[in-house]
Amino acid sequence: MFCPQCGTSQAEDMKFCKSCGGNLFAVRKAVASRETNEKFDWSKTWVAEMMLSEEERKKRETARKESLGETADFKRYKEIKEGVITTCVGAGTMFFLYMLFQGIIASGFVESSVAAILRVLWVAGVIPFVIGLGLVFNGLVVSKKQVETARRLQSGPSPKMLAQPAKNTDPSLASAEWPEAPEFGVTENTTRELR
Hints:
By secondary structure, the chain is mainly alpha-helical. Helix content is 59%, strand content 0%. It is built from 8 helices and no strands. It has helices at residues 24-33, 46-51, 54-68, 72-106, 112-120, 126-155, 159-163, 190-194. Helix 4 packs antiparallel against helix 5 (112-120) and helix 4 (72-106) runs antiparallel to helix 6 (126-155). The protein is flat, with a radius of gyration of 35 Å. The two termini are 70 Å apart.
């Protein structure tokens, strides 16, 4: 046996480590009993995750995102924030490049053909500027609709959906006698129909 504290090899009959004085008897007792005060939760294993229904997976994913603060409102806010930052970086890049190259041109040590190129290189800052504007637009317009849809789905069915009468379809009747088409799929109750 090896001491768990210092790692030195010990005889099996030793109660205490001869190097550090660690309690080897307690270690042997814990290893032999294999009992813990904690109960094992099978629902947190990868096997249980594989067996979950799609609905339960979605519930758990939503709960995880909410615990991390990743709600639809938060994502929208984050997207708008990233768009504003990217737009500012693009504007700053354009201004910096324009001022830098105008200073180089004004020094007089640049040929006229090179100066023509340097006058338009500030346009490279337009790319992050436009990307940032696109992110802001998406956050303000498109994501707003997604947030509203998510809120409606979370609040439950609308009064319009609750007011609809239940369809009266009795699966025990022959299909020709049904007052309305059933809500189930084509493959449901096929065994009854094939008898």
